[in-house]
Automatic annotation (TrEMBL):
It comes from Halorubrum salipaludis. Residues 229-296 form a coiled coil. Keywords: Coiled coil. This is Uncharacterized protein. It comes from the Archaea.
Amino acid sequence: MSDASLSVTQARVERFAERYLEAVGCSVRERGDELVVTVPETARTDLFEAGTTTIVCAADPERIGADLALHPESETFRSLLREAADRAPIGRVELAAADAEVRLPGWLVESEATVTDTEFSPYYDRTAVVGLFRIGVETVSEYQTDVLRAGAVDADSLRELPALADRLLARATPDSAPLEAAATTLDEDAVREAVDALGERIVERVRPTIAEIREGATRAAGAELDEYRQLQDQRIDELEAEISSVSDAIERLSTAAEAVDSQAERLETLRERKELKAKRAELRDELTELTDARAAGFPEKRREVGDRHGLEVAVEPLTVTELRYVQGELEVSIADAADRTTLRVGYGAGVGVTEPLACERCGSTLSAANPLRLDGETVCCTSCR
């Protein structure tokens, strides 16, 4: 899966905002590090009221003040992106063979042999589905991370086509010429099947990120529980000391009640002792509750902390693009110091080589780690040298 957020720079965010706002009928004027947006009544956006809005292109809170902020992590940018995606969530573009440079496989790039010529023969059209997804990983209590990932699969085989996603992302930047799009020809079931397959693979690819955030949440939960245990241990010590002090006071009042001669003084002393006994009973109940909870590992607090630091992973498809590409055969002429040959492999424009190639000697699959070598006109691998 392609990390669609890696290329989201401040300059591109600003360019995207300008182009999108102008596309929906607003006028945008640059003023230093600000965008002054004039929103007419006829503007096709729900993000701003009619009138003039100032957007500060910065992340420094002191610079932003009460204005809207625009930077890659800002809510303004997310809102613009969401609205743009909602306006055109699905479409179709075509990638002609001439639009895509030849993508050599790793087993040729890493080979000692040199590619002297390539020729692509188109055979038939194929359809891919390219999806742009937002992956939100957050806890109940606080936002954690929000990233964009793009992926592509063949609409029929659901085979992953990462190069196509990269190609479309490269063509879809705010700095590129607009793509010519049309309505999709895919039916709803085909789109849903492709999106589901992409979503599953994207989640699998971001598992390291999820695991990293989960580890951080676990550490935070552990630290919170440790702090809570320390506070409860301190409270238990305080209760034990207070119970001991009250017990001593009760003992003193019992002795005093026996020593006084006045009936009124004796009754007052007994009343005070009764109040202290009630207080001691309350303290003992609290102590018992705390010691029982401590012995059980503070289950209620553990559940509360666990709920607060528990992760929620949301995978949301933002846009789906039907991408038509050409499948055919690539003829590659290669040579080294002593030998030369020509080989043919299945190839998709913008996709790359679509079938594995095996060593003609040992049958091992060629790869970047086990690249091609020539022995006469025989295609061999490095491993069986």
